[in-house]
Every structure is written in structure tokens, then in C-alpha cells.
Amino acid sequence: MDLNELNKIAMAMVAPGKGILAADESSGTIKKRFDSIGVDSTETSRRDYREMLFRTDEAMRQHISGVILFDETIRQSAADGAPLTRLIQDAGAIPGIKVDMGAKDLAGAPGEKVTEGLDGLRERLEEYHELGARFAKWRAVIDIADDEIPSGYCISTNVHALARYAALCQEVGIVPIVEPEVLMDGDHDIDRCYDVTEFTLKSLFDELYAQDVALEGTILKPNMVIAGKKCATQADVDEVAEKTVKCFRASVPASLPGIVFLSGGQSDEAATAHLNAINAGFKEKMPWAVSFSYGRALQAAPLKAWQGKAENVAAAQAAFAHRARMNSLAQLGDWDEGLEQVS
Ligand code: 13P
């Protein structure tokens, strides 16, 4: 393991004003997204859509540090024959790869999941490295449902798998993004999210330490501390920022280069406003760079503008560039609502 090289990649992933585009939807998830705009999900339509994003010059050159790809995409070529990974590299961004095989039912724990994909992972990582990937992602899913969920069993099995994945990544020169996502689907309040997120993060960093994962070559991709979507009391932007920073300061070691939040079903503007409030209000109190690794919050607008039609490509690229610019400003703590009007 070359820790200097891993650290260099990790620092580039969280360079000032830049964040990550999560374009690693599995075949099932991208089909759902395409269904919402009435477009058939085929190998070609998925390629065309992603090629359109990666060819959005302003976004890719100025605001996006890296792109998380799905297995199919890292092997695909653009319409003119250039590998999609080359489009990303030519824009100065880093290709990354989702390597987990999805969250499956956890034995003996109804309603809970554990993420699979460790078997054969060493060999897959070697191949992905050859294909150009310099970072990877593994997502664990932690649901909040009642007093029993999440169980300690669910959290410990998931963080154990995250650490095994991270150690394998570092062995081949790939920076692991460790993503323990506490879902925002329930009716729990923000304080319950705080407690579950804190316990999950502390368990994760214990396990990373136990398995000798170098934090200097690791990036964390967490949820923000936020009330469940169905909770009657929604915290305001300042409370989300304050509780998120408090939770992470209590749980995340300073040697980690960066934290990149997932959007998790927040509206586009909420995801941007929260990131901005965190950076604008607390930059001096945080030892890590704090940025974005958004899927839906970067792609919902371009997807809607695109509708699968060639004549909409320019409008879709403008929508993507706008969201990337807004989140870039939020990474710097320089965003405000007024900027949303000018695209
Ligand atoms: P969202 O930003 O849509 O939550 O997706 C990010 C991601 O990569 C989830 O694994």
C-alpha cells in the first residue's frame, strides 16, 4: 500500500469547490429513474445519458472531482468510441467504481439489511484499477424503524464488511469511500438520527482501526443528521448543520481527509442549503474537508430536462452544470438562495 498516493487521491477528491457525482445507479435503480421520465432503460440509453453528463464541460472541469461508476459504465465507450473513463479523466476528474453487490436481508433480523460483495472482491478491484478506477464505494444501509431497529447486530455486521472492503481497496491502490447510510425514510426525529448516526460512525471507526485501514487514504460518505421524511417536526437548516457538525466532531478522527455527504432523498435545494450551512458556519471547527457525493440531488434536474431526447441535451447539461455550481459554492460556504434563480 502506498499511503502517500492514496492520500493524494483522497485530497483531490475533496479539493476546494469540488465534489463527487454519484452516477453508479445499479441497473434496477437507473430503470426506476428512467421510468419516471418515460425512457426505456437499455445499454445504449444508459450510455447516452451518462455520456451527456460526463461531457458537461463546465460541471466536470470546475466542480466535479470524481465520478462513481457502475460496473457496466466503467466498461462502456461513448458514441464516438472513446471510453467513458477517458471522458472523465480528460475533464480532470477521477473515475471511481461502486463495488458492493447490494444490501440483502440480514439473517435473523427481519427488516434489516447487510451489504454483500466481499467474495472475489480482491480480483475485481485489481481489474477496476486497470480500467482506471482510483477510488471505490461500498454502501451499507441502516434503517431506523422502532426501538429495536437498527440492532447492534446490523450495525456491527455492516461496519465489519465496510472495513474488510476498505482494507482490500487500499491494498491495490484504490481509495475506499466508506458509506454507512442511515436512511431518512422513517418518522423518527432529528435527535434519533443523531444517536443512530453517532453509534454507527463510532462503530465504523473502531472497526477500521481493528482492520488496519489507513484513514489518511479513506473518504467517508455519510448521511447528514436530519429528521426522517415522515416526521411531523422537520428541523431547520441551521439545526441540521449544527447537529451534523456536532455528531461528526464527536465521532470522526481528524486524520480523515474528507467527508462527502450523500443526498439521500433531500430536495436538490435542501441538500445544497445544508452543505452550505455546514461549511459557512463551521469551517474552522472541522478538521476535514466537507463536500458532496450526490446522486439524486445532482441528477434529478438534468434527468427531467433530458426526457431521453437529443434536442434536450443542451438544457439537461445546463441543469446539471447549475446544480454542480450550486453545490460547489456550498462546499465553499458561498451559496445563497438568490443564486438559485440565475442559471
Ligand atoms: P443520493 O445522493 O441520491 O442519496 O445517492 C448517493 C449515493 O451514492 C448513494 O449510495
Secondary structure elements and pairings:
Blueprint: H1 3-13, E1 19-22, H2 27-35, H3 43-54, H4 57-63, E2 64-69, H5 71-74, H6 84-90, E3 94-98, E4 103-105, E5 113-115, H7 121-130, E6 135-142, H8 152-171, E7 175-182, H9 190-210, E8 219-220, H10 237-251, E9 258-261, H11 268-282, E10 289-294, H12 296-306, H13 313-332
Parallel strand pairs: 1-2, 1-10, 2-3, 3-6, 6-7, 7-8, 8-9, 9-10
Antiparallel strand pairs: 4-5
The site of 1,3-dihydroxyacetonephosphate has 10 residues, from helix 12.
Protein architecture, described:
With 343 residues, the protein is an alpha/beta fold. It has a single domain (3-341), classed as TIM Barrel (Alpha-Beta Barrel). The protein has 13 helices and ten strands. The strands form two sheets. An eight-stranded parallel beta barrel has the order 1-2-3-6-7-8-9-10, surrounded by eight helices. Strand 6 (135-142), helix 8 and strand 7 (175-182) form a beta-alpha-beta unit. Helix 8 (152-171) crosses helix 9 and helix 9 (190-210) runs parallel beside helix 10. The relative contact order is 0.14. The mean pLDDT is 97. The site of 1,3-dihydroxyacetonephosphate has 10 residues, from helix 12.
What is the compact description of this entry?
Helix content is 47%, strand content 14%. With 343 residues, it is of the alpha/beta class.
CATH superfamily: Aldolase class I
Which percent range fits the helix content?
Answer: 40-55%
The CATH architecture = Alpha-Beta Barrel
Mean pLDDT: 97
Order of helix and strand elements from N to C terminus? HEHHHEHHEEEHEHEHEHEHEHH
Low-confidence stretches: none
For the record, the CATH class is Alpha Beta
